[in-house]
Amino acid sequence: MFIGTYLVYATVMVLAHPRFIYPFGPDSFDDPTFTQHVIEGSDVHVAIAEGDEETAVLFFMGNGGALAYFTFSLKAHQDAGRTIAALEYPGGGGIPGSASEQSLKADALTAFDWLADRHDGPIAVHGYSMGTGLALHVAARRDVAAVLLDAPYVRMCELMTRASWLPACYMPFVQKWDNAKDVPQISAPVLIQHGSEDQLIPQEHGARLAALMEGEGGGVLFQPVAGASHNNLAGQAGYRARIEAFLTRADTPPE
């Protein structure tokens, strides 16, 4: 009886799990300092604010799914004078369509190539929560100047396992979001910021990801942020200063 019930539960969760991964918000992003683009030949939506600094940033938000919820991160780059482009996810923020791991990763590469075509300087990628998987996916496949990760996970399926009591990382048809797979291909310097009070993605995920990168010989700086939770990390004192210091070092050629 118990085994049958568990198998039914597992089947239902496999079918339903995208709803939990992509609980996108409806609020549209209407910041007048950004312009909205649909990349030609695709359904990929990007918002961009132009800046004067040499380095541009491509931002990938978390699964809140609406850029309106990530203004602290966007403003950190805008106020520093950088061009900041952000991928908008289908199904959230008034963008039509629906999302999957495969489609979002393809969209992320399309967005990077679009930004690279219009920006002559270096491009850094910046991911928050679920978006860290997109930042790492791009960094493993494109020439990026730096990688900024806020509250990253090693494998999202581990978080699913904790929440569901199912072996999500080993189940077919589950979208795994395995950041560890991209680590060996990362050559750009990486900054990880992760709150000590993060209950959604515990800080140990960021520490483990940093350790994996160090094991591959990559340049990674892990910055635990005392008192920060998952949703208020970007609003903490020192958040911007750590980004600026890191990008300054990344832009400075070795002697």
UniProtKB/TrEMBL annotation:
Residues 102-231 form the Dienelactone hydrolase domain. Pfam families: DLH. GO terms for molecular function: serine-type peptidase activity. InterPro entries: AB_hydrolase_fold (IPR029058), Dienelactn_hydro (IPR002925). GO terms for biological process: proteolysis. PANTHER family: ALPHA/BETA HYDROLASE DOMAIN-CONTAINING PROTEIN, PROTEIN ABHD13. This is Dienelactone hydrolase domain-containing protein. It comes from Yoonia litorea.
